[in-house]
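Reopening this ticket.

The earlier resolution said the output was attached, but the attachment link was broken on my side. Pasting everything inline this time so it's all in one place.
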Amino acid sequence: MSTTVAVPQPVAVEAPAARVAVPRNVAVDAYRGFVMLLMMAEVLRFSHVAEAFPTSWFWRLLAYNQTHVEWAGCSLHDLIQPSFSFLVGVALPYSIASRIAKGGTFWKLFLHALWRAFALAALGIFLRSMHHNQTYFTMEDTLTQIGFGYPLLFVLGFRPPRWAWAALGSILGGYWLAWALYPAAGPNFDWQSVGVSAAWSAQHNYTGFAAHWNKNYNLGTAFDQWFLNLFPREQLFVYNEGGYLTLSFIPTLGTMILGLIAGRWLRATAPKIPMQRLLLAGAIGIGAGLLLHFTHICPVVKRIWTPAWTLASGGACFLLLAAFSWVIEVKQHKRWAFFLVVIGMNSIAAYCIAHFMEQFLLSTFRIHLGPGFFYFLGTGLQPLLEGAAVLLSYWLVLLWMYRRKIFLRI
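Inline output:
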């Protein structure tokens, strides 16, 4: 995910140019680091601080953007997973280049892609199982979703650009049609049977055609009620409390394809940045997603990764990539990005550190600093200060790895 050495595409046509090195795109590393920082920064617990200061719009705003929206819409936190997926696509042309420059062939690289896909999916399941009594087979985790779609993305990386566009249209159009054809819940359906309260349903569920994308009664839930129960489980799977789905890996692949398109644009124009293309793609993506949402053709819902969400969030990813590229690559303001690059160049390590180290660090602070150490600015800010210490510790570990050129890659 974090390899950034260049190659043109399609490789079969332009393979000789694959041995021409280009400078590392620092903007991509910084963007990836920003995304991972947002994920790791959950330890700051803005929602707890906002509860302590209920009249403060500042803390409410931070809390809103550190949580997922209930259903339709988007917060900054909701852009973590699409950005991570998008950047997998951006990095793919560079990754292929690096391996071809070392003598790799398509089939050798494809076998590595299959291994990488398996490792990502397995790591996602492993991390989700940490607090369960047995392996918790769930497939909506970010790493697992990327792993499921990665082999096809890799193949598209070896094909002409029109293949990526055709695949994107087929995936989003076919997925939308499959959901539209699946029957929506009837007027007397018992929503509580799938974990949806009457109050929640009245506020967030849709009527009319958009009802095909309601929580826990849709094509994706029906698939999971069959598929996930094929695995050993602590209890029968009926629904996911957050509404998340295994089949979301299909439109997530669409997000990765958008990233592949962006990565090719960056390579084709290097060292220049295709700002107009990135900005136009961002505007079109967001506009198309909102049009589908407000016409009730397809709502923008991240939790079930609707095609409209793929377009809208993909557009946001194009704009974020353009912003980082403009500041870092065009204006050459790179020194400030070092903090993010340290994280972005070790994204898998950062992902694992956030899962493994939080409780260890909190326990260590309590033992050696005392249980009341972080209360010196009052109880309201205690979660923030404690979380900031944890976050700084994460970064120092990553800095240590960066200085010693230790990069965890799959």
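Reporter confirms the inline version is readable. The chain has 17 helices and no strands. The chain has a mean pLDDT of 93.
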